[in-house]
Amino acid sequence: MAPTLYMLDASPAVRAVLMTAKAINLQLNLRDIDFFQKEQLQPEFLQMNPQHTIPTLVDDDGFVVWESQAIMAYLVEKYAKNDDLYPHDPKKRAIVNQRMHFNTGVAFFHMRNIAKAILWYYESRVPEKERQGAVEAYGFLETFLDGNEWVAGDFVSIADYSLIATLSTLNTVVPIEYDEYPNVVAWMVRCESLPGYPANKKGLKAAKEVFKIRMSKH
């Protein structure tokens, strides 16, 4: 039986997992969670994940794990035919981990705060503090990609899937300018050719539409 992923398409974190699964040809049983209806607060969901976050994965043996990057690493370790996306080499893996922590602590941190401001607090503009944080994240990523095709070096990793899910969404509210971040823009174009990337498209479109609707109401 396929692992079950509790999800919401528009979430960048969910899309990172979906892209990883597609890249390793893993079929997932997808279960949508409606946050606006607070389905994540139902007792049966809280029993699985007391932090009531998505994505949450339940494997076919009942094992439960949440947080997208933990899920991605787990899926590659258990189901991928090789370690290409998450190398066993300690130095390569350390860089992949660092880039994913960068996503969590910097890029996705600002993306999440922007989403909260617009979707939950009905602000019509991106808060300036978060806009500046996003721009700083673009600058860091521009440096990471200097001389590298992919975020962790010369190979595609789960860090690329994690960051492209975030950056493609962040770009809709804080546009990435080619003149300032040519490495980032070129990397984003390369990511569109990755085998897992199609799994990003539907949710990204949904996220764009939600942001547009909420920001146009003011």
UniProtKB/TrEMBL annotation:
GO MF, one annotated term: glutathione transferase activity
Stored InterPro entries: Glutathione-S-Trfase_C-like (IPR010987), Glutathione-S-Trfase_C_sf (IPR036282), Glutathione_S-Trfase (IPR040079), Glutathione_S-Trfase_N (IPR004045), GST_C (IPR004046), Thioredoxin-like_sf (IPR036249)
CDD domains from the UniProt entry: GST_C_Delta_Epsilon, GST_N_Delta_Epsilon
Domain GST N-terminal: 1-83
Origin: domain of life: Eukaryota
Pfam family, one: GST_C
GO terms, biological process: glutathione metabolic process
Gene3D superfamilies: 1.20.1050.10, Glutaredoxin (3.40.30.10)
Domain GST C-terminal: from-to ranges: 89-218
PANTHER family: GLUTATHIONE S TRANSFERASE D10, ISOFORM A-RELATED, GLUTATHIONE S TRANSFERASE E13, ISOFORM A-RELATED
SUBUNIT field: Homodimer.
The protein's name: Glutathione S-transferase 1
Protein's organism: Zophobas morio
